């Protein structure tokens, strides 16, 4: 009988009390993050700062490729070995498609333009990967390449605490800023 009472008390504490307390604290201290870091445009949710979205069309900066087709319920990496024939073929296909879309890519293609992220939803690209898309976007929008590069620079986030991670650009935020210029 003591074991049953202890189980009920622990169920209430751990299963109800603790989750409610942590949710309440999170909502009080970090309300935007606790709600999913949603981005609103004109009072309408456009997306989340934390999840990649697919952008089609030459006038938009494209996100990193998604192994889950940008479906958040199917978060997954490809699980393909980098030496497998399938992975090599898929990467070559992505490089060829990228060269078709972006005529002025040059000899060096940033890896994050042709590889998927571990989760399949990485919302950020390296500044180099975004700048590689500038000629295509400039041609499609009529906005000068210099103005687009300045827009990218203004949306580039540096390393966390100056030492962790790499500089990155959130593609959703960048495209929302681009939309204001079009």
Task: Give the helices and strands, then pairings.
Blueprint: H1 2-29, H2 31-34, E1 38-41, E2 44-48, H3 85-101, E3 124-125, H4 127-131, H5 134-141, H6 145-154, E4 156-157, E5 168-170, H7 171-181
Antiparallel strand pairs: 1-2, 3-5, 4-5
Main location: membrane
Pfam families: KdpC
Organism: Gottfriedia luciferensis
Features:
Potassium-transporting ATPase KdpC subunit, ATP-binding, cell membrane, mainly alpha, 9% strand, 7 helices, globular, potassium, 182 residues
- The value of Rg in angstroms is 21 Å
With strands numbered from the N-terminus, the spatial order across the biggest sheet is 3-5-4
The shape is globular
What is the count of DSSP helices, taking H or I runs of 4+ residues?
A: 7
By oligomeric state, this entry counts as single chain
Total domain modules:
2
Family: Belongs to the KdpC family.
Subunit structure: The system is composed of three essential subunits: KdpA, KdpB and KdpC.
Membrane topology: Single-pass membrane protein
InterPro entries: KdpC
